[in-house]
Design brief:
One of its GO terms (biological process) is lipid metabolic process. It comes from Cylicocyclus nassatus (Nematode worm). Residues 119-233 form the Fungal lipase-type domain. This is Fungal lipase-type domain-containing protein. With 315 residues, the chain is an alpha/beta fold. The protein has a single domain (27-314), classed as Alpha/Beta hydrolase fold, catalytic domain (Rossmann fold), CATH 3.40.50. It has helices at 36-50, 55-62, 105-114, 131-142, 146-156, 169-183, 205-214, 244-249, 290-294, 301-306, 311-314, and strands at 69-75, 82-90, 95-100, 119-121, 128-130, 161-167, 192-197, 203-204, 217-223, 251-252, 257-260, 271-273. Strands 1-2-3-6-7-9-11-12 form an 8-stranded mixed beta sheet, with helices on both faces. α6 (169-183) links the parallel β6 (161-167) and β7. α1 (36-50) packs antiparallel against α2 (55-62) and α4 crosses α6 (169-183). It is globular, with a radius of gyration of 19 Å. The termini are far apart.
Length: 315
């Protein structure tokens, strides 16, 4: 129950006074909803980045409508790991694409472990993100020149939607990029479309709230028991022993989670969860599968690239 008195009698439904902790229905309107076809069309941008030798060739097989392409590669942590990203434009779809690729899973987990509990403020006094993501974001998006190039394209292609997507660590960079552009009013928030794949918990409760406040079109796509999309670990927000202070300080997802509780083959179903971190919809405490993280849409990305990015494997 999300309205009512300050407390409830023992054994009665708990009254929730914080609207953010209440279910929010997702839109099913055309142009505002997530579809499997949409997810696959955006994951094509992610897969193309796996082909570092020839991104444009792979992308042409998957999304021939995307013409202009510019790529970026920077060292995004102290271990020298590389973060790759790209910008693409489809005049046919009237869309600009900002895509952030993944990094080595083992290195990201080690980086998260080393900085667990270390937070950095992000574009405000309350919103905070994990230090590892904070550092990677500014190196990947701001220092690389990607931000300036993106803003030039936004000016050139006025009215185009700005699709921001990412996979794994790239999912965190995508959500931070969306909030950065919206809060600084560099891009009209109404044109921003955020869709991530296998995104970890990027920030604290305030960060999740700001994402929901500023980005209306936002979906986190997760495959079954993906381990990376379950860390850093967090307590169930609905737990009775979780104090308000503990809740505010812990990492938290923003809604909406799109959960494929299957192999993500063509025709497989998904459900959309209505709470920001919904353990009833997907219990992350039981999610430990790295294979699920590596095979979104039932594709082994390394093998996919070796085979020349065959379109019929994805679509």
């Amino acid at each position: 129950m999300c309205v009512g008195p300050l407390s409830c009698p023992l054994g009665k439904p708990v009254v929730q006074r914080d609207p953010f902790r209440c279910p929010v229905k997702y839109s099913q309107a055309k142009g505002k909803r997530y579809t499997d076809a949409l997810g696959r069309s955006l994951f094509a941008v992610i897969l193309a980045q796996k082909n570092q030798k020839n991104i444009t060739s792979c992308l042409h097989n998957l999304r021939p409508d995307i013409g202009f392409v510019r790529t970026y590669s920077v060292e995004c942590d102290v271990s020298g790991n590389t973060c790759g990203s790209m910008i693409g434009v489809s005049e046919e779809a009237r869309a600009i694409y900002l895509g952030f690729g993944d990094t080595l899973v083992s290195e990201m987990v080690n980086g998260l472990g080393a900085q667990l509990g270390a937070w950095e403020k992000f574009e405000g006094q309350k919103a905070g993100v994990v230090s590892y993501f904070h550092n990677a974001f500014y190196k990947s998006f701001v220092d690389s020149g990607m931000k300036d190039d993106a803003l030039e394209l936004v000016k050139k292609y006025r009215g185009f939607r700005v699709w921001i997507t990412g996979y794994s660590l790239g999912g965190s960079l995508a959500s931070m990029t969306s909030l950065y552009l919206a809060k600084k009013k560099l891009v009209d928030p109404n044109t921003i479309r955020l869709v991530t794949f296998g995104e970890p918990r990027t920030g604290n409760v305030a960060f999740a709230k700001e994402i929901e406040e500023h980005i209306q079109f936002r979906y986190r796509v997760v495959k079954k028991n993906d381990f990376i999309a379950s860390i850093p670990r967090s307590a169930d927000p609905a737990a009775s022993l979780l104090t308000a202070t503990m809740y505010e300080r812990q990492p938290l997802f923003y809604r909406y989670l799109v959960h494929y509780d299957n192999k993500m083959k063509k025709g497989d179903t998904f459900k959309i969860c209505e709470l920001s971190d919904d353990f009833g919809c997907r219990n992350t405490n039981f999610a430990y599968d790295l294979d699920d993280h590596r095979t979104y849409f039932h594709i082994d990305s390394d093998k996919f690239v070796e085979e020349g990015c065959p379109r019929d494997h994805l679509f």
